[in-house]
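FAQ: What does a ligand-bound record look like?

Like this one, built around zinc ion:
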Amino acid sequence: MTAVEQNLPAKDSAPKTIYLKDYRVPDYLIKTTDLRFDIYDRNEKDEKSEGRDGETIVSAMLQFYRNPAATDAVTQLTLHGADLELVSIALNGKVLGEGDYQFGEESITIFNTPEEFTLITITKIKPEQNTSLEGLYRSRTMYCTQCEAEGFRKITYYLDRPDVMSEFTTTVVADKKYPVLLSNGNLIDQGELDGNRHYATWHDPFKKPAYLFALVAGDLAHIEDKFTTRSGRDVALKIFVEPKDLDKCDHAMESLKNSMRWDEEVYGREYDLNIFMIVAVDDFNMGAMENKGLNIFNTSCVLAKPETTTDAGFQRVEGVVAHEYFHNWSGNRVTCRDWFQLSLKEGFTVYRDSEFSADMGSRTVKRVEDVTLLRTAQFAEDAGPMAHPIRPESYIEISNFYTMTIYEKGAEIIRMLATLLGKENFRKGTDLYFDRHDGQAVTTEDFVKALEDASGRDLTQFKRWYSQAGTPRLHITDSYDEDAQEYSLTIKQTCPPTPECENKLPFHIPVAVGLIGSAGDLPLVLQNAEPDFETSDNTYKVLELTETEQTFVFGRVQEKPVPSLLRGFSAPVKWDYDYTRDDLILLMSRDSDGFNRWEASQQLGLQAIEQAMEAYQQGNSLSNWQVDAELVEAYRSVLQNESLDKAMVAYMLSLPSEAYLSELADIVDVEAIHYGRVAVRRALANALRNEFETLYRAYNHQQAYAATADGIAARSLKNVALGYLTLLNDETLIKRCEQQYRTANNMTDVMAALTQLVNSDAPLAQQYAASALEDFYQRWQGESLVVNQWLSVQAMCVLPRTLEKVKALQSHAAFDGKNPNKIRALIAAFCNNNPINFHADDGAGYQFLADQIIHLNTQNPQIASRLLTPLTKWKKYGPQRQALMKKQLERILAEPDLSKDVFEVVSKSLV
Ligand code: TRP
Ligand code: ZN
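The answer part, i.e. the structure of the complex:
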C-alpha cells in the first residue's frame, strides 16, 4: 500500500525543527511489550500463512497506561511509525476501524484511549528492501536490526522515545535455514513449527527504551567463553559471526573479558544478565550498537587477526568492544530522557572506553591519539556551520547529532570533571549517579548534580560547557621576578561565536601546569592557595580558570622557568604561549609530562612546515628544501633517546597532519600545506638518513606478531622510519620497502609498505606498487575488510589522477555501493583524507562528492549526510574553491525528495 492508498498527508517540504525547550513527558507509558516476528525471506512461499515473499509480519501487544506524571487530560494517543503497512489494530480486543484512528506523517493517532489498555497491532515490513540500515534489514545472509536513535518506528507502531521504558518479550519465527534466532535478554522458549520453521522467545527483565531493542536471525557460527563476575555469577559470552569469520573473534572476546573486569574494578559496575552476545554484521551505518545483552557490531569493529588486521584495527576492536560493553551501565541501566541528552551516555562512555584503553596499553599514546582526533575533526566541526554544544538546543534529524562534539568533546567534558573533582570524589559521584538513577531516563543536569552532591563542589559555572559551543582560546603570558623569586602566569580566555550563540560567558577550565627549569620539573608553590592534597606530586598543579582573565603567582621559583601548560591536554581548548625554539626543545626533552613532550615536538614541526609553506607561497622551489641544524638535532635526540616510550618516539617523529594544519589555518592553502609538509619530511629524511636506517634495521625483526603495546610500538617506529626513507627516492630503499611488502607476517607491515609504494612518484616504486596492488587483491579478494584497506590505500594516493582511479574502482567487483564500509573505504577516504586531490582546482572532486550524495540520499540518508562533511567546510577555502563547493551544495539542495538528514546539513551549511 502506498502513502496515497493509506490516506497519508503529503510530506511537508520543509522538515520541522525539534527543540529541547518543547520537551513534554509522555502521556502514556508502556508496561510490557510483546513482539512476534514472522520472517519470510525473498524466496519462501508458504500458502498457509499470512506471510509473503520478502515480508516480515510484526505482531505487537503493548500494555499502555496513563503516565502518572502527565498533566494534560488527553484521550488519544499518537504512536510513531514509518514505512509500515498496517494489517490490523485492536484496542482491548476490539478491532479498530475507520474513524477510530488516523494516520499522520510517520505516525498513527488512536482516539478515545482509556486510562489503561492493551493494543495489538499487526504490521508488515520488507527488510530486504530496507537500504537505510535502520529498523529491520537484511545484511548479506542475515536479518538484523538497528534502532538507535529512531529506527524502532520502522519496525512497529510505538512510543519511540527513550523516556518510554518497557519490559520486552520477543518471539522470532523463521525458516530453519536461519538456525540462530536472537533477541535481548534470556532465552525462555524455543521450538519447531510446521513448514520447516522454528521459533525462539527471549525475555529481557530490564525495562528499556525501544532504541535498545535488537533482533538477529541467520546462519551464524559463534565462539563461546564465560566470565565470572566479582559476586560470583557466571555470564556466558558469545560472539556470532558468519562461519568464514570464526577465526577472527578471539581478540574481541579477550577485549570483552578485560572490559568486564575493568568496569568492576574502576567503576564498581557488574554485568547484570546471564548472557552477553555480540553479533557481527557487514552492512552497518556506524561502529557498533549497545542493544541490551545483544550488541550488534560492524564487522570492522569486531573481527581481527594478524594476517588481515592492522594494529590500528586491533586497537579499534578493543576500544569499541569496551565502549559498547560500558554502555550497559552508562546508557542502558541509566539512559537518556530525550535525544538532546545524547552526550550523557556517549561522552561519558567514550571517556570510560578511552581510560580503559589507556590502562590496557600506553596512557600517553592513547591521549595523543584522542587529542589528535579532537583537534582535527572536532575543532573543525566546532568552527563550522554544524557547530553545536554537547547538549544541543535543537535539531531537525537526530542522526546528524552523532558527532565528534557529542562523543569526543563530550568525553573531554567528563575528563575535566574527573580532573576537577579528583579520582576519589569522581568515583563517589559516578556511584551516586548510577545508584540514584538506575532504571531511569535522565538528563545531563542529573549527572552533574550527582557529582555535585557527592563531592560538595559547585559546578554551576562548569555547566556552561554543556550549553555553549565553540572551542575556547587561551592566551597565556608570564613574567618572572628574579628578586622576589616569583613567577606569574596570566591566562585570558575567549570563545569565538557559533551558530547558537554570539557572546560566550567565561568557562570553568582546569589548566594543569608544571614549570620546567634547566634540570627538569620545579616544585610548585602557588601563592594564596590552599595546599593541594589531591596529588602527592608537588610539580603538578591544576589551576582553575573561571574569569575572563586571571593571574596565578608561584613563589620560591629559583630560576626563570619554561611553563608546561595544559598538561595531558587538560581542557579541550586552543592555547598560545610565545615559546622560543629553545623552550620547545627543552620541553621536548625535559618535560615530565609525556603529552607535552609530544606537543612540543609538534610545535617545532609546525614552525618548520610554516617556513616551507611561506617559501612555497612566495613562489620558491621546495625541491632542495633544508631545515636548520638545530631542528635536525632536536629530532636526532628524540630518535636516539633510549628512555622514551617507542610508540611516543614514533608520534614525536611524525609531523602534524595536513588535516591539523588545515584546521589551524584561517584560509586553507591546500597546496602549500601539502608541498610544505612533504618538503620538511624529505629534508629530515636527508639529514637523518643514517639514524632512520639504524632504527629501521633495529626494529625490522621477524618476530611473531602480537598486538601488545610493545609490538605495536616497534612496528610504528619502524614504519615511521620506512616512510621517511622511502621519500628519498633511492633504489635500495625502495627495494627494501617492496621487500617488506612481500615478506611481512602481519597486515600492519604489509599496509605500511604498500602505502609508501603507492604514494611514491619514483618510477621503480610505481612499478612495484602496480604489481603489489594486483597481488594484494588476488590474495585477499575473499576478505571484505582487507579489500576495504586495498580500496582506501588507492583512494588516498597523493599522486595525480587519483579521482579517475576512484571512479574506476566504483565499478570494480571489490566495490559495493550499498555497503557503508565500502563507501567509507573508497569515497569517504578520498574526500576526507586526500585533500590535494579532493580539492583539485577544477572542482571535479566536489562534483564527484555531490553526485555520490545525491545518489545515496534516498538509499541511505545517514551515510549520505555523513559524507557531506568536507563540503560543509567551504568557508575555510579561497574564493575559487568556495564558489565551486557552494555550487555543489546548492545543486544538492535543489534535488527533489531530500532526506531530513541531508537537508539539515546542506541548508545549515549554506547559511
Ligand atoms: N550508540 C551507538 C554507539 O555509540 C551509536 C550508533 C550505532 C548509532 N549505530 C547507530 C547511532 C546508528 C545512530 C544510528 O555506540
Ligand atoms: Zn556509544
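Follow-up question: can I read anything off the structure? Yes, for example: The radius of gyration is 29 Å.
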